[in-house]
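The aim of this short unit is practical: by the end, you should be able to scan a pair of folded records and say something sensible about each. We start with the first protein, listed as its amino acid sequence and then its structure tokens.
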Amino acid sequence: MWGVLESLEIPEGVRAELIFGEILLSLSSDLTTNLIVESLIHQIPAERWHRWTRQDVSCGGGSRLQPDLVVFERGAAEATVPVATVEVVSKTSALRDYRTKRELYAEGTIPVYLIVDPIKAVCVLLTEPTRASASGLPDYVSERTTKFGEPIPVHLLGVTLDTSEFQTYA
């Protein structure tokens, strides 16, 4: 199925993801998402980390996702598994970001998954992925929810993120 997705001509400004065998097309990020992602990029040190947008990530179930932000260790021989992924929740992506992508990123053993939710004005930091949670589905062992304006320590990246400038949807 990935071959089909690769052969499609995706218009500029459209994101294409493969989730459990289904091709999902969505419009590019809005201003709120872009401002949040830009803030995060500036807070994660470039000397140690690659901070990329528009980067495909292979996950469990044959899925390929395109997070709003992907963080890879700089200088790693093969940057195939990200250290962190970030999804900024939109009005149409909440279920995917909170459930589907949470499961897929955990199955892909991505150590840090940060959900930034401008609808609820909260950030959910998920760490310690496991393929066998109590529910039988891949999940994260550790979950920490903070309100916009509160700092988020992300120990694996060696940073404390400042969320005071994060905006909600108007």
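Turning to the second protein, read its sequence before its tokens, just as you did above.
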Amino acid sequence: MMFLMGWALGTGSSPLSGSNLALSVRYNVKAKDIMRWNLPYAVSGWLLCGAVFAAHDWLA
């Protein structure tokens, strides 16, 4: 589960992931801008994933 959560956050937020590179080339957007725009997604996803693990630990 940790691997899948890390992969999902990395793919969506990293400017070097294949999907973000394709978008930046296709729409002529700087990788720096993509990273800045995806920062709220990465932080909220990181907090949500942490909450899922904390809830699992608390319930188990």
